[in-house]
């Protein structure tokens, strides 16, 4: 990948703390400017390949392109030849000739990397089994809006240690926010990612913790974050997972161990009564809808950074 000069957004590991802060500042500016923002992506076309369902990612990317004067094309793998076995690399080479950027939501991180490696246009990871960096960018923007800063703040993620947790962990370490990941036994984040995060946190002066204990993990947190117990592709494990995750529900009892002014976050879609009670997600500490809106603003900044 050393010979390529184009920029991609595959994981936040590839972005420096300064680059992330610049993206957040640009996102804040674009959000403030709203409809009066200049058409920074005039004439640009983004392709969006989806191998999994999506509401927020699809609509926020498409809206971001339209609002900045560009265009987006939705490509479901149910419709395109990639879904019938055309290779990722042939798809990348062909689409590079038509488009200015490509977003993909898929299963394996290696598919995103292969697409990026074979494209001459920027590639964006719109969620894999391992990462969800666009979500993490919007989450940082939201935390900044509600908490004012990252240093000295603590985010406690409780639930499955997979894509959203991994990206939140990396994002927190990059910006110097303390992060605790609380999971049932055997659902911890990948060790490799935890050790990357610890390395990064050392430089930013923050802490990374992984625990199986909800109460001690939630203590002193400014942000409580959760996600579904069975992710896309894990539908057949849903019942088994339910039993393991039940003690990890975000409910009134659990949040009583956080700071009084904690905020509740969730990438959505949510399952009320499973990972979070309705009382919490619909209560006054919840910022899940501003968080969802911030997908749009964060991605506007990302698209401008990559494509203009
Ligand atoms: N949070 C998120 O990525 O939502 P969608 O699956 O609806 O895109
Ligand atoms: N962990 C969830 C996130 C959805 C946005 C999933 O992968 O399905």
Structural summary, described in words:
- The chain starts with 16 loop residues before the first helix and ends with a helix.
- The strands form 2 sheets. A 5-stranded parallel sheet has the order 7-6-5-8-9.
- Helix content is 42%, strand content 14%.
- The model has no long low-confidence stretch (mean pLDDT 97).
- Helix 3 (88-96) packs across helix 4 (109-117).
- It is α/β, with parallel strands linked by helices.
- It contains 12 helices and 9 strands.
- It folds into 2 domains: 12-131 and 295-307, Rossmann fold, CATH 3.40.50; 135-291, Aspartate/ornithine carbamoyltransferase (Rossmann fold, 3-Layer(aba) Sandwich), CATH 3.40.50.
- The chain has helices at residues 17-33, 56-67, 88-96, 109-117, 133-147, 163-175, 191-204, 214-218, 238-245, 252-255, 278-281, 288-307; strands at 45-50, 71-76, 101-105, 123-125, 154-158, 178-182, 208-211, 223-226, 263-266.
- Bound molecules: phosphoric acid mono(formamide)ester and norvaline (NVA).
- The site of norvaline has 9 residues, from helix 6.
Q: Please describe the biggest sheet, giving its number of strands, its sense, and whether it closes into a barrel.
A: 5 strands, parallel
The strand order across the widest sheet is 7-6-5-8-9
Contiguous uncertain segments of 5+ residues: none
* Helix-strand pattern: HEHEHEHEHEHEHEHEHHEHH
Could you name the CATH class of the largest domain? Alpha Beta
């Amino acid at each position: 990948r050393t010979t390529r000069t184009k920029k991609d957004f595959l994981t936040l590991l590839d972005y420096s703390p300064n680059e992330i802060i610049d993206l957040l500042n640009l996102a804040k500016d674009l959000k403030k400017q709203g409809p009066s923002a200049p058409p920074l992506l005039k004439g640009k076309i983004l392709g969006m390949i989806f191998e999994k369902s999506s509401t927020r990612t699809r609509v926020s990317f498409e809206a971001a392109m339209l609002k900045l004067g560009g265009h987006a094309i939705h490509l479901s793998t149910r419709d395109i030849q990639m879904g019938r076995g055309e290779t990722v690399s042939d798809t990348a080479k062909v689409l590079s000739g038509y488009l200015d950027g490509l977003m993909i939501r898929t299963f394996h991180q290696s598919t995103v990397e292969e697409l990026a490696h074979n494209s001459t246009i920027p590639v964006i990871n719109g969620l894999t089994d391992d990462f969800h960096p666009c979500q993490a960018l919007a989450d940082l923007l939201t935390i900044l809006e509600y908490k004012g800063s990252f240093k000295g703040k603590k985010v406690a993620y409780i639930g499955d240690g997979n894509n959203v947790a991994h990206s939140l962990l990396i994002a927190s370490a990059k910006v110097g926010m303390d992060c605790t990941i609380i999971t049932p036994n055997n659902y911890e984040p990948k060790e490799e990612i935890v050790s990357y995060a610890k390395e990064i946190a050392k430089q930013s002066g923050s802490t990374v913790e992984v625990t199986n204990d909800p109460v001690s993990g939630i203590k002193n947190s400014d942000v409580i974050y959760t996600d579904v117990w069975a992710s896309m592709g894990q539908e057949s494990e849903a019942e088994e997972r339910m039993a393991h995750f039940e003690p990890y529900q975000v409910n009134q009892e659990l949040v009583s161990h956080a700071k009084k002014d904690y905020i509740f976050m969730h990438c959505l879609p949510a399952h009320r009564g499973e990972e979070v009670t309705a009382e919490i997600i619909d209560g006054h500490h919840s910022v899940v809808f501003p968080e969802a809106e911030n997908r749009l603003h964060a991605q506007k900044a990302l698209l401008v950074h990559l494509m203009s």
